[in-house]
Amino acid sequence: MGFQFSDWEDVSVVIPAYNAEETILRALHSIASQSVKAREIIVVDGGSTDNTIAVVEKEAAMEGWITPIRLIKSKSSGPSKARNIGVKKAEGAYIAFLDADDEWHPQKLSRSMQELRKSNATIVAHDVIHQYPLGRKFYREHSKMYLKKPFTKLSLFLFDYVNHSTVIVDKNAIIQAGGFDETSTFDAGYDLWLKILNNPENSLHFFKGALVTYYIQGQSLSSQYLKKLACHEKYIIRHAHAATFLSYALAPVLSIIRCIILTNKVCNRASNSNAYERILISILRMPYALVKVATLSIIPLNLFTKKR
Predict the structure, then answer these.
(1) Is the bond leading into 150 cis (omega within 30 degrees of zero)?
(2) What tens digit of pLDDT does each residue of 75-107 get?
(3) Does residue 272 come out as left (phi exceeding 0), alpha (psi in the -120 to 50 range) or beta?
(4) Full residue range of the structural domain in which residue 252 is found
(5) How many domains does the chain have?
(6) Which of 44, 92, 161, 238 could form a disulfide with 82 if both were Cys (CB 3.0 to 4.6 A apart)?
(7) Which of 180, 215, 250 is the endpoint of a domain?
(8) Which residues pair with 94 in a beta bridge?
(9) Which of 106-120, 138-152, 280-294: highest mean pLDDT?
């Protein structure tokens, strides 16, 4: 018996890909294995120099795919730009994100849409499993950090518990918020979810259950790691005022707390990856980071944030 209309969800799955020939099939097959089907899969390739494009084209041409795969080629685009391109091209009312090296579990789409309808939220997300290069797995029960309105934005600002590959979000909310920040390579999801929640009509619903495996890659260059820290600090400064109704009075304090939590998080992840030099870098850099975020968070946002 073929799939009925009720077996489909009006969801476009956006996958940014760059040199992902070794993992992209795992991601695609995890979407194909869902208990309900997405409307479409959009793979946005950011100028891969390996066989990623050929792998996706071959898979898209194979018979038996119920969910169509659309490949968009974009030269030298980072993940934020790739996601924005995918969102603009998407035909679904909702957008789901999946990184090319991550994997959905079979009930992910079905359960997420059930929770979305039940909560009437703008964004839904859930717990995740972290898998490290040596095969170690950790259940990240981020649902413990989730607080319902009016404290959701504050808890998200402090703990950054929403993983890209767990999210399903209203497409219009992404567009209205201005999409992902294309000026930054890292952590743009954290920025976007907070921008969406700046609209009081939008809400986040976070539910218990790990329905995604997030594969943490091996060590990267220290220069890239430093860029990631600097990028996240920019977002801390950007959103400190809006994180609480007390705004400017608490912005420096909240920025410092967030920076300490971030440092602890990256140190724990570095320890699990045996990337001990990152722990040293984070600790040595921490005094500078604390002064930076506390000082800049006092300045009105429009004085140092370039309008898009």
Answers:
(1) yes
(2) 877 899 999 999 999 999 999 999 999 999 999
(3) alpha
(4) 222-301
(5) 2
(6) 44
(7) 215
(8) 11, 170
(9) 106-120
